[in-house]
Each structure stands twice: as structure tokens, then as C-alpha cells.
Amino acid sequence: MDTDQRSRLEALVRSLPVQPRTGSAPADDYPDTPGALLLRLPRNRNIRPYNARILQAVGDGPYVSDSTVAGLGSGRVVITPQYVTAFAYLLGYRPGDVVALTGVGPVVEDAKAHPASAEIAALAWQARRLSSEQLSEVMAAAQTIQRA
Question: Which residue of 50, 51, 109, 123 has the fewest C-beta atoms within 10 A of its own C-beta?
Fold first, then answer.
């Protein structure tokens, strides 16, 4: 999406009313590890944390499967600086800050994050308060806006 399209989508997200929670967020059984932290942060923004395609497109994450990203939480997959840097861009954090939080670095300086990664992260933060039904509505609108 170009800047105008993202602005229209952001306006839609901001216009939707906050829905009361229908229950608490599902707990995970991850140990307290840097990989688990990386998966919990996007979940706090309604970003499905196992979506490897989004991680790669926005943060220049590794080319892996969703199940490989999910393995970060349990420790089955080794967390690397590329993951840390990619999650930082996806979440709108400075990569150095996420390196400090996880203890895994250094920052991948030549990462090719999406040019609008900060805007995308801000939009995800705004959308965190939406229900699943509202998120489906936003996704449908995004497709319509993109095709227009």
C-alpha cells in the first residue's frame, strides 16, 4: 500500500469503536526466554506471532515457515540477531533496544526493513484494541483499498 492507502486504512481503524474483551487472552506455556518475549510482543498487538511472511516483509526476517517462528517460543528454534532485528522493525522498536531486551545481537545493520515499517507498526498498535470481527472488516477494507 502507498502512503495514501495506509492513511485511509488508519482512519478506518481509528474510527472503529473499542469492543469490550470477551475474555482474557489465552496463556501460553512458553518458558521465560527471549524467544517467548518476541512472540508475546506481537500478540499484544493482535499480530499473529507465527506469521513468518509478515515478519519477513516488514522486518526482513528469515525465510522460514510459520511453525519455525512458533518454535522460538518453546526454544526449539535458536533465536538469532536476524529474528531480533526483524521483530524490532515489525513492532516499531529500535533494533538496539530489542537486542538489549533479549540479549541476542548484534543488530543486523544491513536489514532491509519495509520503508514504511514504522507506520505499519503504528497501525498495528492502533488495531490492537479491535475485536476479531473488526479485524476481519479491516482486512477486507485493506484489500478493497489496495485494489482501488
Answer: 109
